Amino acid sequence: MVRLITLDPGHFHAALVQKKNYPDIDTTVYVYAPDGPEVEAHLNLIKQYNSQAENPTHWNEVVYKGSDFAEKMFAEKKGNVVVLAGNNRLKTDYIDRSVNAGLNVLGDKPMAINSANFEKLVAAFEAAAKQQVLLYDIMTERSEITNILQKALMHDTALFGALQKGSEKDPAVFIESIHYFFKNVSGKPLVRPDWFFDPEQQGDAIADVGTHLVDLVQWQCLPDQALDYKNDVKITSARIWPTPLTPSQFASITGSSSYPEFLKPYISKDSILETHANGEMNYTLRGIPVKIIARWDYKAAAGGDSHHSIIKGTKCTVEIRQGEKENYKPVLYIVPAKKQDGQFDNTVQEAIQKIDASYPGVTVEKQSSGEWKVVVPAKYDIGHEAHFAQVMERYLQYLKEKKLPGWEVPNMLTKYYTTTKALEIASAKK
Length: 430
Description:
The protein contains 13 helices and 17 strands.
């Protein structure tokens, strides 16, 4: 039986892995945290899930609050899986201490926010192997249906061909993700802690949200292949830039009417917070040219967080768009590389028939532009919050098997090397 320990929850992702119950997880969860609004927000979400009308959960949270919460947890070790989602300044240290204590870890991204933490993470994975425990991060984007179908279609050589050679100016793979500070979680406005805006505690966007995007590139383009970050990744350029927030916007996000002292270095003369919210990196992965952009804005004018992904093949491009035309929902398109005849139309239909074996009901509609829109039944659009349970279920299976897939650890290391090295390069320019 898996017994969860939640350590210092400061991000709502810590609660989302408990939005449902699991037969293999004990319903008693041990929480260790400093007293304050962050742990209370976490516990309130768990209470909300326990009392939800549809499929209520039955979690029993046993809580210890105190300044010595970490020491207390490691002394007691009442569970066998540590869930980490919160302030990232100490997360890599918590990971290292947990695996060395013989505890499995399910960590929210990012598990490392700078190059120094990356070196600690390398040591933590080595320790996890010696202790025979599983260290794994929460990559929800692998569960999103359009990402899954994009991956499937790009590996159908009759349809896609091969990845284009591309260049830095015209990359074979492009992904841009836009997130918003002001948003709703589980139906209620999210209150973010003030440290969320400190790059020393939360991390820059390029090393935070960027982890999801780099993970998708690896998972989609080179599936089930173990990567070597020392040889397979070459960062060609990177940059970071801020998103300005007014005092009133900061207050609406955090509930705080003033900036804490640690944010003062990022305040301009007119009281604008120049938050570390945007990053771009250009790199090659085994020679594949990739461009990644991670951005944050204050609040969405319509819709919510958005994802734009382009993967270019010699025969077609598979592209996810999430704009007004798509009603702000991710939609996958098949874009022919050149004007096609009826044979390409047949190839599209054949590719979709193959997908139907795993995802019945997926169809395509030809657009006036000559593109094909992939139509996905609503039953596969379960929403971002439900993807956390899917990650947990994968992790539970790995715990049963007592091992991760052989490519997962080298690829996690490659991912965090890519993001932290890009940040190091971008920061050196300033």
